[in-house]
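Sharing a chain and its predicted structure for anyone who wants a worked example. Both blocks are below, sequence first, tokens second.
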Amino acid sequence: SSGINAEYGGMGLGNMCPKSLIRVREEMTFLDVTVAQIENLNEKYDVNVPLVLMNSLNTDSETDKALKKYKGSNVEVLTYLQSYYPRIDRETLLPFVQDYENIASNEGWYPPGHGDLYESLHNSGLLDQLIARGKEIIFISNIDNLGATVDLNILSHIVKSGCQSQFIAEVTNKTRGDVKGGTLIDYNGCVKLLEYAQVPKEKVDDFKCVKKFKIFNTNNLWINLRAIKERVQQGTLDRDVIVNHKALDDGRNVIQLETAVGAAIKNFSGAFAINVPRSRFLPVKQTSDLLLVMSNLYKIMDGTITMSPDRQFPSTPLIKLGPDFKRIQSFLKRFATIPDLLELDHLTVTGDVYFGRDVSLRGTVIIIANHGERIDIPCNSLLENKIVSGNLRILDH
């Protein structure tokens, strides 16, 4: 018996609401897609798999409001709060927290990365509650990874092995767009997760090399619940600390000490990784990712998003959008409708660019509006291997 935990806490894409409440497909939010997936799972197999959401103080109240719409669903949604730690002043190396009451509205505090999941789940009481109800395995994924569905093949393997594997990480092959993804390494005979933020500057090029590090961590994890409880209670959940340097809006430089959920792999017996198809990793971290999943490249059914059979190539296009497209509100207003991307290989857009209705993009398309100029791509345009410059001259590429 299993449960699903979606790491939930972030605000993203320049949006003021929780990232999980952003619409991604056919008016469905990330949360809608996840609930639909588990609804189908519960109905198809006559089971009661709950959805467990890890919130931060920034997202908790908005989440509670959003969850009311699922009251008639066959999915039980449980939530718990992530911890908050004090930020450290980079000059004095001391916490600069002054207000210990209003944590959510205080820049002196921060959520310490998704590696905090284990302690937070335990301290909330939900871990004991799930175990008491006979749940044995928890599938953990990021809410913005639309490819992270319950894979019955992996679950079947865990059950058939008698749950001897306490921790399974899903990895997938690197592409040129994944050079910063964390990877698994052998360190003194122990499997460890190496994150980009832990790599010394002089070794970054080696880390990014696809030939040297061929796989990366998807953050899809399958973990034994009793093993989590045992290690939290024993205090033996050792994870590497990531030192994250940040600048606040008021200019102050701070240090945040964070951990990654996958870094706990070295603490569990029988832990290993499975190389999964790329389809299980479809994250939406930027508006360029959002453009892909909103387009006709993908189809959605019962909360599962798959690449359209009309796409002739298994790889996804490489999309680079400039700063004018960074925030979701600006991104959405620049597309009258989402273009046809079925035959697109590479798209680069910079500057003040707007797309009319029913535009088709094929091959390699580069659109560059110079400072002070605006480009409007006309309705029903077909751009195939074209460079569009600031004065709207269209050249063969």
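Comments welcome. The radius of gyration is 22 Å.
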